[in-house]
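ok trying this again, last paste got cut off
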Amino acid sequence: MYKYKPKQIFASTLTASFVLMCLVGRAQVAGTNKPAAKAAAPAVLPGNGLAQHDFFYAGEGRTRDMYIVRGGKVVWAYNDTAGRGEISDATLLSNGNVLFAHQYGVTLISPDKKVLWNYDAPTNCEIHTAQPIGTNHVIFIQNGPEPKLFVANIASGRMEKEMPLTVGNTNSTHGQFRHARLTDDGTLLVTHMDMGKVVEYDETGKAIWSVAAPGAWSAVRLKNGNTLVCGKAVREINPAGDTVWQFTSADVPDYKFNSMQIAARLPNGNTLINSWVNQWNGKIDPSTAPVQALEITPDKKIAWALRSWADPALGPSTTIQLLDQPSVPEDVHFGSIR
């Protein structure tokens, strides 16, 4: 005769419940029923980590941090924990100086972190992009009620050029502009973030080319004449406005990220993409945080993935400037200004 065995039934039920919990991916957190945290990238990443490239690194975060990595080690660091704002743009010049836009101003510092030049944004204005022209000029865009492009002459201490820019909303300072870059022709590619387009301006302020680019954060002109636009996706757009190459997070389903800020085409034909994380949305868990950068081949394979949230903790990623070969990033011009 079958006998009722409550302990056995309880044990079997408990085992079945545990198996079911594992199958549905639920975390055993006392008093909660939250889904278990999922890794945002594979445990083993392609490439050689910090040693893949020598690079200069900066990103929008709660503190203003910049790093130089050589041979897989941090050899220089700038950490401002007392100021305010976020680093949206930064360039390491060939002489070792660093120019960076930090929301409430633009600053040029020496390798020993002494301030060589500084411009503070006026009240109700922000600055998120700046680029050196030689060693005596800086071009930058000032968001605000009267948005403008400026070219500052560091040597004379005066503004050599001021040019008004059109925006979608003069009352929405923070969302107007993020990134702008000079082309080899001496024109300026400006990403109108709040208008969903990229516009190319000449020295007189005339718009000579534009393309619709909803969600775009940055744009750079490639050697082949196309334009690489980065935002919700990375798109290579030809002069006619057609997309000839595109990369989205769906192309690499094992990697979870949703905010790409700056992309660059490398000499080997690969595309380097920064994957940003918003620190204002909550504390970042280093064990589950996404990769900070991806190097993508033309056929959308990952050649290198950077993930360094601890030892060293590089923080959110906005821009990576590769230093594998000597370069002169300040060797650019804006029309006649060199």
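PB: full thing came through this time. The longest strand covers residues 73-80.
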